[in-house]
Amino acid sequence: MPAHALTRPVLLTLCACVLVAQSMVAAVNLLIPQLSSSGLHPSHTEVLWTVDAYVIVFAGLLVPAGALGDRHGRKGALLAGLALFAAGAATSALAPGPALLIAGRGLSGAGAALITPATMSILVHLAGPERRARAMASWTLAIGLGGMAGNLGGGLAGQYLSWRALFAAMVPLAAVLAAAVAVTTPRTARSAQGSPDPAGTLLLTAGLVAVLFGIIEGPGHGWTSARILAAFTAGALLLAAFTGHALRSRAPLFDPRVFRSAGLRATTLGLATGFFGLFALFFVNSQYLQQVKGYGPAVTGVAIVPLIVGMALVPRFAARWSARPRPVVGTGLALIGLGLLAASTADAHTPYPLYACWLLVISAGTGLAMPALTLGVVVSLPAHQAGLGSGLGTSAREIGAALGVAVAGTALAGHADFASGMGPALRVVGLTVLAVTALVVIGHRSSGRPARTAVAAPATREPVV
Q1: What's the pLDDT at 449?
Q2: Is residue 249 helix, strand or coil?
Q3: CA proximity to 337, closest of 456, 441, 416, 232
Q4: Of 119, 130, 183, 121, residue with least CA distance to 4
Q5: 24 and 144 Cβ atoms separated by less than 8 Å
Q6: What is the mean pLDDT of residues 201-221?
Q7: Is 464 helix (H, G, I), strand (E, B) or coil?
Q8: CA–CA separation, 448 vs 381, rounded Å?
Q9: Under a CB-based contact definition with an 8 Å cutoff, are residues 118 and 81 in contact?
Q10: What DSSP character marks residue 250?
Q11: Count of beta carbons in the 10 Å neighbourhood of residue 41
Q12: How many angstroms separate the Cα of 132 from the Cα of each of 46, 139, 264, 298, 376?
């Protein structure tokens, strides 16, 4: 596929798809008060599952969804994902009770799991080596803007519309994006390797879902409760079973030996670390601005907009330094950690412009590190596994995000009120980010050589589908 195949309409369309999918991770958080008092009369647990179902299904299916797109067609996977996303949104918008609302969120999460790796994989194949860094910078910016759009859209819906309106708006939006994909996006070569691995897919997905359940529900049930310990135990056993199955299989979902690559280990850890800090901030930020500063939902959504600035501007420079990822990644993650430590000093008397400056520091760090880390995952794997690489990288992001919310929530639970717990919570997260940054920098390789796997790359040209 020639490099000029990545036209501006294709790039904008693919980035818009991933932006919309990512936005629904955060949008519901600002609608929790409205959902709780709605005519559905959901219990506290049902409200939590309305928020979490999307993330758990999304993250749990990312790796098999990426591999599915590689093997059976990335454009088809993207269109199928948009259809599932829209169907889930329609189900949630029309839900007569909490059960269907939660089911709709899970269905949309499954759609997002197909959308996200397919968009990155198509970009990798269309961009070519010379434009890959810039394409990844744009894709990473779309991920960040998705979080901001979710906060803004959820805030506006909570202030002026209803939670049903937010879900209903996703249906025509997904239809427009599907039409744009059909018209602008060419098909790419698919991987000729292997066949579907149902057993591996089931083991890996169930293991990730169990681990994510434990992380997300841990603060509420207690980390040592029987339910959470059982979830982590089940997750560990299922992931171990997947590893054993993949090592024995002639056509595994993916070969776990790809993690022999120090670069892949470092970049996935770096992605998880960045989103660990970022989503801990999202979790604390909405409560700080509403409970401590007294802002309404709409103003709260707007007040986090400074995070867009660094994510929008810095990746342009980060792409130029793609040949030297280690200092770029180290500096970016360090800025996230230092920004969180600065934000931990905020209280009711902190002027918003000063708080916004700390958001800008975190934003600059995110914009600097994330494109290099995303590209690092891509170049650590063979080109025919681009969808798998996207799935691994995005799984790392979502697991890091879930951990960030869980750690911040646990730290807050140990204090009498939010105002007294916000500082210690952000300090724990910030110091953790800085500590793990050192490990990422040590393990990060700048060679960019693909990982060796037990499955050889095909010798013949891959079919286009």
Answers
A1: 45
A2: coil
A3: 441
A4: 130
A5: no
A6: 81
A7: strand
A8: 9
A9: yes
A10: S
A11: 10
A12: 42, 10, 17, 37, 11
For residue 166, give the H/E element and its range.
helix 163-184
Residues 6+ apart with CB under 8 A from 355: 343, 346
Using alpha carbons, select from 355, 61, 87 the residue that is nearest to residue 204.
61
Q: Which residues face 189 on adjacent strands?
A: 464
DSSP string for 289-305: IIIIS---HHHHHHHTT
Q: Please report, as a single letter, which amino acid is at residue 438.
A: A
Report yes or no: 222 and 250 within 8 Å, Cβ to Cβ.
Answer: no
Supply 233's token pair.
Answer: 């135990």
Rounded mean pLDDT, 112-121: 88
Average pLDDT over residues 448-459: 40
pLDDT in tens, 168-180: 999 999 999 999 9
Task: List the alpha helices (DSSP H) in 94-131.
Answer: 98-127
Q: For the beta carbon of residue 192, count every other beta carbon within 10 angstroms.
A: 15
How many residues are listed for the chain in this entry? 465
Whole-prediction pTM value? Answer: 0.75
DSSP string covering 178-230, please?
A: HHHHHHHPPP-BPP-S----HHHHHHHHHHHHHHHHHHHHHHHH-TTSHHHHH
d(CA 435, CA 7): 40
